[in-house]
Write a structure and sequence with these properties.
mainly alpha
């Protein structure tokens, strides 16, 4: 049953839709500019962000939309496993795998409930609880890291003795890195909100 457009749940769901759609679009643009392994990671994040935006729509996506989302999420799991296979020590690839599995889990819950969207449907308490703990820690640590790194990186990005041009380039690179971290944090927050709604 669709939520009222002005209910608090609907408003929070639409905020998650906007947050994830903007983050996913930024990651898609980043994937177009990136090369090699960073392109694959950015593309995976783009798929996750856009799929989360679709999944969070309060009115749902209908039975076929839920099936398509489940397939996309399973594809994201396979992509995350492929990235992890190439560099198993890369912490972000492991995080991407957890996110893909969480999305596939929510899509499976939506399908089993016969709904068009994953939030608001009861899942397995142990799995949902573990994912909630993971994403709460990720959001808290990621937010703290973003604040502390944001004040340090721009000053140390340029090598010693570099001119003002080098400093500007270093600041731009640092700013892009902070924006990427902010997008990841936004998607983590969106995931946390969606899991809280289960």
């Amino acid at each position: 049953m669709p939520l009222s457009l002005l209910s608090p749940l609907a408003v929070s769901a639409w905020l998650v839709v906007v947050l994830c759609a903007v983050s996913g679009t930024y990651c898609l643009l980043r994937a177009r500019r990136a090369d090699g392994a960073s392109r694959g990671a950015a593309a995976g994040e783009a798929v996750m962000g856009l799929a989360m935006a679709v999944m969070a729509v309060p009115s749902g996506t209908g039975p076929w939309g839920a099936r398509v989302l489940a397939v996309v999420c399973c594809g994201a799991v396979a992509h995350a496993l492929w990235l992890l296979r190439g560099d198993p020590r890369h912490a972000h690839h492991a995080h991407h795998l957890v996110g893909s599995l969480a999305m596939a889990y929510m899509a499976a819950m939506a399908l089993s409930a016969g709904a068009g969207h994953g939030h608001g449907r009861a899942g397995l308490p142990a799995v949902t609880g573990a994912l909630l703990v993971y994403y709460a820690a990720y959001v808290l640590l990621g937010g703290a890291r973003l604040v502390t790194v944001g004040g340090v990186v721009p000053r140390t990005a340029a090598p010693a003795g570099a001119g003002t041009g080098g400093g500007a380039v270093g600041s731009a690179v640092a700013g892009a890195g902070e924006l990427t971290r902010a997008c990841r944090l936004a998607m983590g927050t969106g995931m946390l909100v969606m899991l809280l709604g289960m």
